[in-house]
Amino acid sequence: MLFFNNFSVRTKVTNPTLMNDKEFLEHEISAWKYSPERLMQIKGHLYFEGEHDILHRKRLVIGENGELTEVKNLPNNKIIDNQYGKLVLQKANYILGQPFVVEGDNEQYIEHLKRIFDKRFMRLLKNAGKAALNGGLAWLYVYPDDDILRFRMFPAYEMLPFWKDSEHTELDCAVRVYTVQGYEGKTPVLIEKAEVYAADGVHRFILKNGRLVPDESTDMPYVTLGAVAFNWEKIPLIALKYNESETPLIKRVKTLQDGINVMLSDFENNLQEDARNTILVLKNYDGTNLGEFRKNLAAYGAVKVRCDGDSGGGVETLEINVNPDNYKTILEIFKKALIENGMGFDAKDDRLSGNPNQMNIQSMYSDIDLDANDMETELQAAFEEILWFVNAYLNSTGKGDFEGEQVNVIFNRDMLMNETESIANCQASVGILSDETIVGQHPWVDDPKQELERLKKQKEEAQAEFERQQGYNPFEQEKGGVDEE
Kindly report the CA angle at 57 between 246 and 71, in degrees rounded to 5? Predict the structure, then answer.
């Protein structure tokens, strides 16, 4: 008996007699869980939440044998300046902070899309964008719920995909591994579960000691309407990629973020080490070897020396001052490098001083705009997959057959602008460009079509008010014209 019905990953096993479907998946899951790629995805999410490596740092000094030794009587500050988290928020809000617009010729289709792509979906998409930045990609799971199509987001570190092609454009199947809170008797425990998304539905398991154990309701279809079970023609998982190589943002800037944290922590450590700023030199006391000298200097801030001759004992001090300018310079270098390598923008850039023109603003945004172009390309490809499921859902529920309908998904990027200059350019374009084009470029307008309708209504109301004040009656004029004839 086959482990799965029509399980396509089985074709990846060259000799099924030596490894069955279950053993193949168990082996792949074990290798993936501790792979460098998944660990980097987890690290991206941890750094975004403020869980940085500096929190696990120990204070080390050179010991008696010349090796690093942990000491616990010295300040060990663990300061986090989360520039990485700020960079992720910049990018996610830049491309997904404003609601996107769906345009098309079929008004009925557009209304259905607006109902599905509601504010709840907008929020989900923005969160998925953050997850894609942290993990290189994120996943949307499609399912019908309460007479509407819904989506759920899975982070990259929960999903093990099996692709049909090397470009990672079409899924063969996927495994989701996640933990839930459970109980063994009255003792709370974490239970690791695995869900296999195959062509014939979802197969649920418990992952115990690296082995897949069937869970309750092991085999489930993707869609159940009443008592009838259905499956999509495609696996209902859509990859939202940050870039084509699925590289997390943290991989570009982790060392720089760690450097910022270390510099700030070391600076506070040095300021708190009063005994280390003033080293005591005890003259004419027991001598010491080099190893003991280094350890005592670091741990106690005192040095014992033996003097020859008749000189008596005494205590002298050696002053060591911490220069904050050195730390400030290094921090500025690190932060600037993090922004450049992460392709963000500096909100305190000198180009924004005074009354910046639009060219200066666009120059400041050039890096993040270039990176956003790559991300938008991947988002547009993902929306093609989303619309396939939307069309299938609308067709199967009798709401209409919209296959082949052309729609445009327009992302409104959240860029600073010189509104005075933009408005002046719009005014100067009257008579040269159409009203719809001009209104669409106005900085205060989010929906050009709705704004044009408002303008039309406003003009009609103004004309009606003018005619009322002038006592204009078209019926009397028509009657008067007939009498004169």
Answer: 165
